[in-house]
Amino acid sequence: MQDVITIGKRLVPLEQIALVEPFDPASNPDFRPEKPFKARVVLLNRDSVLAEFAPQEFSEAHGFRMLADDGVATNPAVVFGVETFAPTENFTPTKPYVTRLKWRDHEGNDHSRLLLTKPEVVIAVAVRGEIEPAVTAKISARRPPRARSARRSARKPELAHA
Hints:
The chain is α+β, with helices and mostly antiparallel strands.
């Protein structure tokens, strides 16, 4: 049962999970849980289960794709759609969301989650499975650059045999 996780007493198949997002207990001061919940596991049908692991831990353990700006781990087995988001007169959220991540449950119902991450990055990471551009830049920046003279001296023995 490698593709089933246990959250409290509940067994959840990985394919039923849409995403894992951070849980902020301060967002609902009337809710005082007994356990130190760190994440909300959002199922395809938008039901959710609170969990004691962080989204990043879950992402690393189960191969989910991490959207760093939101701290959200998306399931690579779910087909997501991406839309730009702009507040309207009737709906102005408190955070500066720019993207709507969309998916469908098994009954064909649409569900979504607003994100702070730019749409291009959401497409690259959540849809295509690429490493975030900022992460890629940091990884390549860590490699020390090779000097030109080192490259030339490495080629000289090859030329000598020609």
